[in-house]
Amino acid sequence: MEYEKLRHFESYIKYSFKNRNLLIEALSHSSYANEKKKYRKSNERLEFLGDSVLSIVVSEYLFHHFPELPEGELTKLRASLVCEKALHVFAQEIHLGDFIFLGKGEEHTGGRTRSSILADAFEAVIAAIFLDGGMNAAKTHILRFIPKNLEHKEVMGIRDYKTVLQEVIQKNPEEKVEYVLIGETGPDHDKAFTVEVCLNSNVIGTGVGKSKKAAEQMAAKEALSLMGYEGA
């Protein structure tokens, strides 16, 4: 059963392991390893290594593909590709949550969809590929996930202001952010949406965009600007 599960996962990542023990370790969450005691290692050490391999590969890619960008912009671009939110999305592309070995507690509390668990396992899988097949194999795997339209999006200056705002607000756990659609105008082919972002029911920003998501980003940007955030 476990062998078939691993083969299935290998088909998603388009890589066959010579040493499947590395893959098993990469997919073993600490909750599962703790239940199995000495019979199974957790993926925490591989996660540590995978984080570095990921950073090197992404840094090299950006260095060569954006020769005009200064160091500060390259750093922002890299951060957008290696943050937990991005890795969570990448992990979903390869159905990683279906293959992680979890302890019973994590299994019952939604561990398979938890972004931190998926992001950590994604990095661990990178390390496993690196140890099994070398840097070229790891690089091939990682580059599959870099968005094809990355250059267009980032050159146009699009930033994920919602994520930044959420990170700022999370410093105070009792605070709650909510986006509310308050209006839409124009014909179906050229609508404009207006969204307010609220902090504990108090409006802290308003944004307008061609889609609800775009309007939410603009609302978050205004909120950050009013807070004095330099990047907004």
In short:
The protein is mostly helical and 232 residues long.
What features would you describe in this structure?
With 232 residues, this protein is mainly α. Helix content is 57%, strand content 11%. The chain is built from twelve helices and three strands, in the order αααααααααααβββα. The protein has helices at 2-13, 20-26, 30-36, 44-65, 71-82, 84-93, 104-108, 115-133, 135-143, 150-155, 161-169, 212-226; strands spanning 177-185, 192-199, 202-209. It has a three-stranded antiparallel sheet. A hairpin with a 2-residue loop joins strand 2 and strand 3 (202-209). The longest helix is centred in the first third of the chain and has 22 residues, at 44-65. It is globular, with a radius of gyration of 20 Å. The protein starts with a helix and ends in a 6-residue tail after the last helix. Mean pLDDT is 87; it is low at 152-158.
Summarize the topology.
Blueprint: H1 2-13, H2 20-26, H3 30-36, H4 44-65, H5 71-82, H6 84-93, H7 104-108, H8 115-133, H9 135-143, H10 150-155, H11 161-169, E1 177-185, E2 192-199, E3 202-209, H12 212-226
Antiparallel strand pairs: 1-2, 2-3
Helix pairs in contact: 2-8, 4-5, 4-8, 4-9, 6-8, 8-9, 11-12
> What gross morphology would you assign?
globular
Rg result = 20 Å
Q: How much helix, percentage-wise, in residues?
A: 55-70%
Strand content: 5-15%
Q: Sketch the topology as an H/E string, one letter per element.
A: HHHHHHHHHHHEEEH
Extended strand count? 3
Beginning-to-end CA distance, first to last residue: 50 Å
